[in-house]
Amino acid sequence: MTDVEKSLGAPPPPAAAVAPIKAELDKPSSNDAASSEVAEEKPEKEKKEGIKDFFRIFKYADRLDVILYTIALSGGVAVGAALPLMTLVFGSSTAAFNNVATGQSNAQQFTAHINHLVLYFVYLFIARFVIGYIATLCICIAATRTTRALRKAFLDSLLRQEVWYFDREGNGSPATQVTTNGNRVNQGIAEKLYTLVQGISLFFSAYIVALAVQWKLALIVMSIVPAIFGVIAACIAVDAPVESRITRIYSRAAVLAQDAMSSIKTIHAFGAQRKIVNNYD
């Protein structure tokens, strides 16, 4: 009985009436249960990345970006295919030197043939330089535009999240995520994508030229290709998870540093400097 009830002379409520009310108050509500489930929610399993996640980036590209990507990738194919043609010109020049050394051609024929091959070298170099410059410029512009659209979509989705999403552990700093991952996406769909297409074009065009000129030697060299692919796949399989883990660690460290700097007075008042430093390390 409270002091007010004693002063008013009100009779105390029966115990039978108080017991259900007390049990109802002690019973956790649905909101408390939901909040406790959120608080005690276990970390979600990491989603495995795949090649479809890479191509999913290009859904943020508009029509102009698609045109720029088409020009850039076509230029990459042309630049990669032009390099084996230089080996044909170089082989012809070597044969011309052998012919003049063995006396099969005179000096005038040798000079005219070499001048003709030098022009081929110059034309191929100018063509590769111009096409490569235009292709690199187009793919860099397209990648920048696509990354900008991706960052805007990420920020729009982030601002629509509930408050409890930002209190979860392991999310990392949104600023770090959008900056670090955005730069990596930009590199992956710009220079690296162009280099990949150029390398694939160079690979197939080189073997086409080799099989057309000297097919026996080309078949012998092709035996080492599976070993090269195996080594590259093993390196990628080891490096990709490490890079992803490094990004998460740096992101969590950035969150901890940001929280520590914003609450520096509280940390200094409770003498928790050493604990914060240990957590950061």
TrEMBL record:
InterPro entries in the record: ABC1_TM_dom, ABC1_TM_sf, Type_1_exporter
Region called Disordered, residue ranges: 1-44
Gene3D superfamilies per record: ABC transporter type 1, transmembrane domain (1.20.1560.10)
Pfam families with a match to the protein in the record: ABC_membrane (PF00664)
Membrane-spanning segments: 66-90, 120-143, 193-213, 219-242
Localization per record: Membrane
UniProt keyword annotations, A-Z: Membrane, Transmembrane, Transmembrane helix
GO molecular function: ABC-type transporter activity; ATP binding
Topology class, membrane: Multi-pass membrane protein
Keyword field contains Signal: no
Entry-linked PROSITE patterns: ABC_TM1F
Cellular component GO terms, alphabetical: plasma membrane
Statement: the UniProt record of this protein carries the keyword Nuclease: no
Residue ranges annotated for the ABC transmembrane type-1 domain, each copy included: 71-281
PANTHER family the record matches: ABC TRANSPORTER B FAMILY (PTHR24222), MYCOBACTIN IMPORT ATP-BINDING_PERMEASE PROTEIN IRTB (PTHR24222:SF76)
Protein known as: ABC transmembrane type-1 domain-containing protein
Species the sequence originates in: Friedmanniomyces simplex
Higher taxonomy: Eukaryota, Fungi, Dikarya, Ascomycota, Pezizomycotina
